[in-house]
Amino acid sequence: MNIPNQITVSRIIMIPIFVAFMLIDFGWGDLTLLGATLPVEHLIGAIIFIFAAVTDFIDGYYARKHNLVTKMGMFLDPLADKLLVSAALIILVELGFAPAWIVIIIISREFAVTGLRLILANEGEVVAAKQLGKIKMWTQIIAVSALLLHNIVFEMFSIPFATIMLYVTLIFTIWSGWDYFYANRRVLLDSK
């Protein structure tokens, strides 16, 4: 397994650690930053999430720079992203920071695209993420990070940045999903 794929696997391994910090009260108290209060565990969980999300850029950059792009990486990388973001979104619903209907649409899109990727893989095609999918991923990372941090930075300016970004994410999620299915419609139409 090459280094980019090891980085991708490490992102998957970080997910249960992130979940533990977000859902278990270790009794470490609250922290006040920029006039907003959040549990210390949530701050640590948010940092783990952000670090794991940044590894998405690192593994992709390293794989392209050193010509280490593999079919395994092209499959694992988006899967790791989907697992990380889905875990975070489900936690945000549990904590009351994200509406369930938005999370259901986002996760449903991820399952649908993963299913299409499996159909394509069965036909010998491994499709790398397109630019629109990458934009979708980064809007998800920004929205989820802001929500995990309880919108701290923007709360002092009374700007619902995290909520705005969640809706931007929803738009890119639907758009990129439609684009992915439209670009690969022949597979669905030709399937027997």
Core attributes:
Four Helix Bundle (Hemerythrin (Met), subunit A); two-stranded antiparallel sheet; 8 helices; 76% helix; globular; CDP-OH_PTrfase_TM_dom; EC 2.7.8.5; CDP-OH_P_trans; phospholipid metabolism
Structure description:
There is one protein chain. The protein has 192 residues and is mostly helical. It has a single domain (3-190), classed as CDP-alcohol phosphotransferase transmembrane (TM) domain (Four Helix Bundle (Hemerythrin (Met), subunit A), Up-down Bundle). The protein has helices at 3-23, 40-65, 71-94, 100-122, 131-148, 152-155, 161-183, 185-190; strands spanning 30-33, 36-39. It has a two-stranded antiparallel sheet with strand order 1-2.
Would you spell out the secondary-structure blueprint of this structure?
Layout: H1 3-23, E1 30-33, E2 36-39, H2 40-65, H3 71-94, H4 100-122, H5 131-148, H6 152-155, H7 161-183, H8 185-190
Antiparallel strand pairs: 1-2
Family: Belongs to the CDP-alcohol phosphatidyltransferase class-I family.
Subcellular location: Cell membrane
Keywords: Cell membrane, Lipid biosynthesis, Lipid metabolism, Membrane, Phospholipid biosynthesis, Phospholipid metabolism, Transferase, Transmembrane, Transmembrane helix
